[in-house]
Design a protein that fits this description.
4 domains, single chain, 9-stranded antiparallel sheet, 9-stranded mixed sheet, EC 7.6.2.1, Rossmann fold, 43% helix, ATPase-coupled intramembrane lipid transporter activity, Calcium-transporting ATPase, cytoplasmic transduction domain A, 41 helices, alpha+beta
């Protein structure tokens, strides 16, 4: 949950004055306009070109283009580099322009909301109406509601859909909606509010944050204190960084190595040229005279740069274009995937970033939010135990438990109760029958639920009740009581009206003993009219209530405990209900002592706690409730699948510890059979260190093992990696936010990481947005693993931006996380398809593409290298210039794109069936430095065959008619034809999944090569462009000879056979997991979709299922006369002499906001 804390990033103190723009403008505060775009119409071209030429490869090709314009150096025409370079720059520019146009549209939409929000300045007073979006950080001044309260929904910020309450100061609230008073208001804000010389303290309860939505409040007025980029929402969003995949980083290193290799080859050629010129060159000067002033040394120097041009294809510019196209295509697959489409909200999956696809196949750590990501943020009354009997489960005729979701048409019919909530669903008929039969325990059970709470009813039309619950748990319990015949109808500060089985009954509310995190229980004392029977109703944690039960409840307590263990084992949130009949004389005495304690100046809280302890004892047990924090569909199965793929999932949530633990068990992340679940909740650095130092393996060293190394471009980046340690058994770790703050300090962070990585499950609760990002950064830094963060609210944005991959859940919780994410979809369960199918395929395709691309280009280039030894190192090309230009752009572009867009080792069902197929990507096995060296060695072998076999075959060879065939042009044609055939055969060997498109691309490219070759070498082209097409007649004169085709066949055979033999031996002796799986696929039928499994019944034997999202202080609020504005039904001496809450008088309050908040505020 977001901490609402003032912080000042660049200023010591913010000083502003209401309704005084000149004064506020002097401080140069940011206005409320949002700008996320990078370019405008004038800056696009220069800035975009500057960014593109910052890429090493683009700058390199620009340098090559300049070299080719120098006649003394260039042996190739300028268009061989210019055409590909312009194409690459144009495609990238169009893509960048499209992205920025979308950002401009988004900015315009935000800035031009109602009343032109972009024109709002700090110090302005603005009016908000019901359901309006708060688009600046405001100090609340007044509202339409009693006590100057407003209700806000913070779904955009934290994913919570239950309403939070904010309250204005009385001094500003008295202005109401009087425009003249508001316009004349000149209060100054300087950490405090100064009005007419009086200073008033400000806190977070008086601030409305950008991203909230006003609910159930007709209007309110607020003073703008932070605008635009200074707002809490924008500050917490973190810095946007340009994300690049690990393959991108590796390619940068490889390109640098290739540059070094290219320079060494060119140096060898230059030295060889100098030697040749001295020894052999003088012989040729008779008919090839040197240019004036050119000696052997200068010739060698020029030869170096000429070979830089000739051999530049080892770094092909088309590589980058092809990579972008492949990523774009794989992104479209995600957008078009119907199995990731959520029809309920009409929400498809979306790849918002098109440059990170293959990284999805390498994820090792997933960091997930809880509320709205794993859960639906919906509480449902699931089961209950009343007087020792359990309700809520269904059994078939054989006595086997039936999963509720499998039941069709078995919902209970509540037509007998005209006040029932039509959306409430329950299946067990026996509970309704028990209540309607008049069972006293069952009726007392639901009577307690209808009375012991702080819910506010709203009845706009007769019979149409709407409950406003500060806690979603309470809303679920009161709704359950409503449907089973005990309808909470209305309340005043001193009474609660309940319709019990059709009969209206009014209870005098004598006291509310409010909930807090220490008491873990709540009680109300009520007197039923007109009987005058006094009863204390109590609900709370089983561990707390059991200590206060009367000894006569021991037998019932044992039965109820069995039920509680079942509920806890199923991950349900439990509460125990109890009551106590009170004596009137005792109650009168207790009230007097309570009044004395509540008005005491010293030790007030301690004295009140003693009184609460005194009255809340010898309780009679009624039963227990089990509420389900409803998970999204398929969450446990998804987590199980991802765990099988060796992906570790950490949950980072702002919820309290009990709630987070409960969800952990619901999702099967925490299990009863785990050897231990460690709780880290110490409040000191020493305590945290002691709790983190757990012995999970007897042989484990005392300190974490850290390996230091160097990586990155020029090996300048220092890396530190914490080694994984073997663990004896399965463990879980739960750490609190205040403990995490100590653990993230420099001297403890390695201990935290070491302990966390040895645990199978890690849950961090009560964490701030900053802490979420810090945890992600810690794992990124010391594990050198690919991370993914998934969330749904603005408090997840910093985590999403910090991780390698950010995924946003798009749904009812808002769009802040989605707007900052790289990928988005509507349900958590789609994550397994994103990773195990799309991510794995993208990684495999990209690795296969890079291996093949480097192979075909190194092979192409090495043939030039061998030819240099036969042309006097003169930088003459072995191929036709047009073949060099079109080789990467036309002849070999489409076949490799076809493989890289459509290839798959196994289909999606097999990918789900065997998640272990995902693990090679985590280890980066398919493309690394070793794989690159193997590509170079393979290319070297192929180039030797491709040069020397055609050379030997053509040497001293004659045509059928006896004429000589061994000329340069015929050799060039034969060499390039052999090369093209061999690289296409290699591509066919690499392709596992053939489609019609692949076939068309392969055969079409070969056909295009022969068609273009015959056209370019024709008489007509020579006559039109004599200098551009000198190879006249070469194709028809060479390709009609049988020995030429035999040479092509022999070359292809010698290049291919060793590869096939080597792969066969590898598969037989050292098969990979993919090899094993493809073998299995050929033998077995396609697996059927996994059937829905009935969850296994788990019994918890060592933990409480208690989890209750309630905050202290709401009891005072709902008993305030001014808050409810209703007269009591009966005049009676109230328990409290002052019934107005501290809220009404702006006195110091002993509680914070109604929302759940971390126990210690930490600056984000």
């Amino acid at each position: 949950v977001l901490l609402l804390i003032f912080y000042f990033s660049t200023e010591e103190e913010r000083h502003l004055r209401a309704n005084d723009r000149p004064f506020n403008l002097s401080y140069h505060y940011a206005n409320n306009a949002i700008k996320t775009s990078k370019y405008n119409i004038f800056t696009f071209l220069p800035l975009n070109l500057f960014e593109q030429f910052r890429r090493l490869a683009n700058a390199y090709f620009l340098f090559l283009f300049i070299l080719q314009l120098i006649p003394q150096i260039s042996s190739l025409s300028w268009f061989t580099t210019a055409v590909p370079l312009i194409l690459v720059l144009s495609i990238t520019a169009v893509k960048d322009a499209s992205d920025d146009i979308n950002r401009h549209k988004s900015d315009k939409q935000v800035n031009n909301q109602t009343e032109k929000w972009m024109n709002v300045q700090v110090g302005d007073i603005i009016k908000l109406e019901n359901n309006q979006f708060v688009t600046a950080d405001l100090l609340l001044l007044s509202s339409s509601e009693p006590l100057n309260l407003v209700y806000v929904e913070t779904a955009e910020l934290d994913g919570e859909t239950n309403l939070k309450v904010k309250q204005a100061l009385t001094v500003t609230g008295d202005m109401g909606d009087n425009i003249d008073e508001l316009a004349g208001f000149t209060g100054e804000v300087r950490c405090t509010l100064t009005v007419n010389g009086q200073t008033y303290a400000l806190d977070n309860d008086k601030v409305l944050l950008r991203g909230c939505t006003l609910r159930n409040t007709e209007w309110c007025f607020g003073l703008v204190i932070f605008g635009g980029p200074d707002t809490k929402l924008m500050q917490n969003s973190g810095k946007t960084t340009f994300k690049r995949t690990s393959i991108d980083h590796l390619m940068n290193v490889l390109v640098l190595c290739i540059f070094g290799f290219l320079a060494s080859m060119c140096t060898v050629m230059a030295i060889s040229n100098a030697i040749w010129e001295v020894r052999e060159g003088s012989v040729f000067t008779a008919f090839l005279p040197r240019e004036p002033g050119v000696d052997a040394a200068l010739s060698s120097f020029l030869s170096f740069w000429s070979y830089v041009i000739v051999l530049n294809t080892v770094v092909p510019i088309s590589l980058y274009v092809s990579v972008e196209i492949i990523r774009l295509g794989n992104s479209f697959y995600i957008d078009w995937d119907r199995k990731m489409y959520y029809p309920k909200n009409d929400t498809p999956a979306q790849a918002r970033t098109t440059t990170l696809n293959e990284e999805l196949g390498q994820i090792k750590y997933i960091f997930s939010d809880k509320t709205g990501t794993l859960t639906q943020n919906i509480m449902t009354f699931n089961r209950c135990s009343i007087n020792g009997k359990g309700y809520g489960e269904l059994f078939d005729f054989s006595g086997q438990r039936v999963e509720i979701t499998e039941v069709r048409g078995e919902y209970l019919d509540f037509l007998w109760n005209h006040l029932a909530d039509p959306k409430f669903i329950f299946h067990d008929h026996s509970l309704v029958e028990t209540v309607r039969a008049g069972n006293p325990e069952a009726q007392a059970f639901f009577r307690l639920l209808a009375l012991c709470h702080t819910v506010m009813p709203e009845e706009k039309k007769e019979g149409e009740l709407n409950y406003q619950a500060q806690s979603p748990d309470e809303g679920a319990l009161v709704t359950a009581a409503r449907n089973f015949g005990f309808v909470f109808r209305s309340r005043t500060p001193e009474t609660i009206t309940v319709v019990e089985m059709g009969k209206q009954v009014t209870y005098e509310l004598l006291a509310v003993l409010d909930f807090n995190n220490v008491r873990k229980r709540m009680s109300v004392i009520g007197e039923r009219n007109p009987e005058g029977k006094l009863t204390l109703y109590c609900k709370g944690a089983d561990t707390i209530i059991y200590e206060r039960l009367h000894p006569s409840c021991n037998k019932l307590m044992k039965v109820t405990t069995d039920h509680l263990n079942e509920y806890a084992g199923d991950g349900l949130r439990t509460l125990v209900l109890a009551y106590k009949d009170l004596d009137e004389d005792y109650m009168d005495d207790w009230k007097k002592r309570h009044h004395e304690a509540s008005t005491a100046m010293d030790g007030r809280e301690e004295r009140l706690d003693e009184l609460y302890e005194e009255i809340e004892k010898d309780l009679q047990l009624l039963g227990a409730t089990a509420v389900e924090d409803k998970l999204q569909d398929g969450v446990p199965q998804t987590i199980e699948q991802l765990a099988k793929a060796d992906i570790k999932i950490w949950v980072l949530t702002g919820d309290k510890q009990e709630t987070a633990e409960n969800i952990g068990y619901s999702c099967n992340m925490l299990r009863e059979e785990m050897k231990d679940v460690f709780i880290v909740a110490a409040n000191t650095a020493e305590g945290v260190k002691e709790e983190l130092q757990r012995k999970m393996c007897p042989e484990a060293p005392e300190e974490a093992s850290v390996i230091k190394a160097r990586a990155g471009l020029f090996w300048c980046q220092k890396t530190e990696t914490v080694q994984d340690e073997k663990v004896d058994g399965d463990y879980g770790l739960v750490i609190n936010g205040h403990s995490l703050a100590f653990a993230l300090e420099k001297d403890l962070q390695l201990e935290l990481l070491r302990t966390a990585c040895m645990c199978q499950t890690v849950i961090c609760c009560r964490v701030t947005p900053l802490q979420k990002a810090q945890v992600v950064q810690l794992v990124k830094r010391y594990k050198q693993a690919v991370t993914l963060a998934i969330g749904d609210g603005a408090n997840d944005v910093s985590m999403i931006k910090a991780a390698h991959i950010g995924v946003g859940i798009s749904g009812q919780e808002g769009m802040q996380a989605v707007l900052s994410s790289d990928f988005s979809f509507a349900q958590f369960r789609y994550l397994q398809r994103l990773l195990l199918v799309h991510g794995r395929w993208s990684y495999l395709r990209m690795c296969k593409f890079l291996r093949y691309f480097f192979y075909k280009n190194f092979t192409f280039t090495f043939v030039h290298f061998w030819y240099a030894f036969f042309c006097g190192f003169s930088a003459q090309t072995v191929y036709d210039e047009w073949f060099i230009t079109l080789y990467n752009l036309v002849y070999t572009a489409l076949p490799v794109l076809g493989m890289s867009l459509f290839d798959q080792d196994v289909n999606d069902r097999w990918s789900f069936q065997y998640p272990q197929l995902y693990s090679p990507g985590q280890l980066n096995l398919y493309f690394n430095k070793k794989a690159f060296v193997r590509c170079m060695m393979h290319s070297c072998y192929s180039s030797l065959i491709l040069f020397f076999i055609p050379w030997a075959a053509m040497y001293d060879t004659v045509r059928d008619d006896g004429k000589d065939i061994a000329d340069y042009q015929s050799f060039a044609l034969l060499a390039q034809t052999c090369l093209l055939v061999v690289v296409n055969i290699q591509l066919c060997l690499d392709t596992h999944y053939w489609t019609a498109v692949n076939q068309f691309f392969v055969w079409g490219s070969l056909a295009a090569y022969f068609a273009i070759t015959f056209t370019m070498y024709s008489n007509g082209m020579f006559l039109i462009f004599t200098s551009a097409f000198p190879f006249i007649g070469t194709a028809r004169n060479s390709l009609n000879q049988p020995n030429v085709w035999l040479t092509i066949f022999l070359t292809s055979l010698l290049c291919t056979l060793p590869v096939v033999a080597f792969r066969f031996i590898l598969i037989q002796l050292w098969p990979t997991i993919n090899d094993k799986m493809r073998h299995k696929v050929r033998k077995e039928a396609l697996p059927a979709p996994a059937p829905r499994r009935l969850p296994t019944r788990r019994i918890s034997t060592r933990r409480s299922g208690y989890a209750f999202s309630h905050s202290q202080g709401y009891g005072d609020l709902v008993t305030s006369r001014r808050f409810l504005l209703k007269k009591p039904l009966k005049s009676r001496l109230a328990l409290f002499t002052q019934t107005d809450s501290p809220l009404a008088e702006n006195q110091p309050q002993h509680y914070r906001t109604i929302a759940e908040e971390p126990e210690e505020a930490q600056s984000p």
